[in-house]
Design goal:
Blueprint lengths: L7 E3 L3 E3 L3 E4 L7 E7 L2 E7 L4 H19 L7 H7 L7 E2 L2 H16 L9 H6 L12 H8 L7 E4 L4 E4 L12 H15 L5 E4 L3 E5 L8 E7 L2 E11 L2 E7 L4 E4 L2 E4 L14 E8 L2 H14 L1 H9 L5 E6 L3 E5 L6 E3 L7 E5 L2
Parallel strand pairs: 18-20
Antiparallel strand pairs: 1-2, 3-11, 4-5, 5-9, 6-8, 7-8, 9-10, 10-13, 11-12, 12-19, 13-16, 14-15, 16-17, 17-18
Helix pairs in contact: 1-6, 6-7
The protein binds adenosine-5'-diphosphate and magnesium ion.
Magnesium ion binds next to β13 and α7.
């Protein structure tokens, strides 16, 4: 869960972040808290009298999960699970950890070949975990890929234990942890009595209620080719957006760019014809998981998947600079810059 994210905040008017941004001309000043967790900069803004309590409760909820789920923290539950891989131990975990592991497995089953929570050895082979990023040798990569198999993760949700069946296997929750945390942050805000807020967990943006003036939030999705600018703006209420793209974390070697979303079928960075995928849904962790998985899947499989469900909408940015918007977003979508080099089309059911 390492992230290198440029971050800029112009309080009250623009909130710019990794994949998306929420902004609006807001009169009332929110309680605002910016903090570093899950290897990224996070910002929570909450309006109303409970705002101050709300943002602190949201931060605490996120930090608690970071402590449980981080693969780079040797004391985390995920590190303990990984350390016991193959030795038969069913590692006791928090019910939240068990829930997230089970959820991640269900996504592997929904989109087999696109998503695998045991991708960690491949992330390590590419050096994405350590900063020593490099193209692995064929032998290194096939040894790592042999350890990727989500079906060898056993989760016992009733007893809150988890076990990895093969020695050397490791779980990496980088594709889902921020989305899961966003859900808990929203819960914390609502429990504190907050009815209007924005939660920005680096690429995962949640808007709660409407803006204080009663209008929808205006959420901007980053331009994958120029992360200082935007691809599109969406007018939304009570929803989460997650964006995944090859532009977030990458390195270059011999003039080739290698990014951090891996195709589990090959062990190489996914090259499915997409520059970014944005998923819009009420379910935070689903948004996060699917933005990663559908980025691997590519346009055709992503649109087919969308046609089979009622609970998600998509914005796909293709390598040939088309923005494919699913019809549920038709009324709330606009290109950020109509002369910015992108065209858009609506995908229909
Ligand atoms: P970000 O965390 O940069 O916002 P994502 O949500 O798309 O982006 O998650 C990318 C992370 O997910 C990677 O850093 C890695 O930890 C993990 N990952 C990469 N490829 C896969 C995959 N195919 N399935 C599951 N997890 C993946
Ligand atoms: Mg994700």
């Amino acid at each position: 869960m390492k992230h290198r994210i440029s971050f800029l905040l112009l309080t009250g008017i623009f909130l710019l972040c990794a994949g998306c941004a929420a902004y609006g001309a807001v009169q009332e000043e929110p309680a605002s808290l910016q903090f570093f967790s899950m290897d990224t900069v996070m910002t929570v803004n909450a309006y109303g009298p409970s705002g101050e309590d709300g943002v602190q409760a949201a931060r605490d909820a996120v930090n608690r999960l970071d402590g449980l789920l981080s693969r780079t923290d040797p004391d985390s539950q995920i590190s303990q699970l990984n350390a016991h891989a193959g030795d038969g131990t069913a590692v006791p975990v928090d019910p939240d950890t068990a829930e997230l592991l089970s959820f991640a497995q269900s996504v592997s089953q929904l989109l087999p070949g696109d998503f695998d929570v045991t991708i960690a050895p491949v992330m390590d082979a590419w050096g994405f975990t350590t900063e020593a990023r490099h193209v692995p040798s064929a032998e290194e990569l096939s040894a790592a890929l042999a350890l990727v198999d989500g079906s060898q993760l056993e989760v016992d949700a009733d007893n809150a234990t988890a076990r990895l069946l093969q020695s050397g296997m490791e779980v990496d929750l980088g594709a889902v942890a921020k989305g899961f945390a966003a859900g808990k942050a929203e819960e914390a805000l609502r429990e504190a009595g907050v009815e209007r807020a924005t939660i920005d967990l680096g690429g995962n943006v949640t808007v709660i209620g409407t803006r204080p003036d009663g209008n929808p939030w205006r959420v901007a999705v980053k331009d994958p080719q120029n992360t200082e600018s935007y691809l599109c703006v969406l007018e939304l209420e009570d929803v989460t957006l997650s964006t995944s793209g090859g532009y977030e974390r990458y390195f270059e070697e011999d003039g080739v760019r290698y990014h951090h979303i891996i195709d589990p079928k090959t062990g190489y960075p996914a090259d499915s014809g997409l520059q970014s995928v944005t998923v819009v849904t009420a379910n935070h962790v689903l948004a996060d998981a699917l933005s990663t998985a559908l980025f691997v899947a590519g346009e055709e499989e992503a649109i087919d998947f969308w046609r089979g469900r009622e609970d998600i909408e998509l914005v796909l940015c293709t390598d040939d600079n088309r923005v494919v918007v699913t019809e549920g977003l038709e009324e709330v979508f606009q290109l950020y810059d109509p002369d910015g080099g992108y065209t858009y089309e609506i995908a229909r059911r």
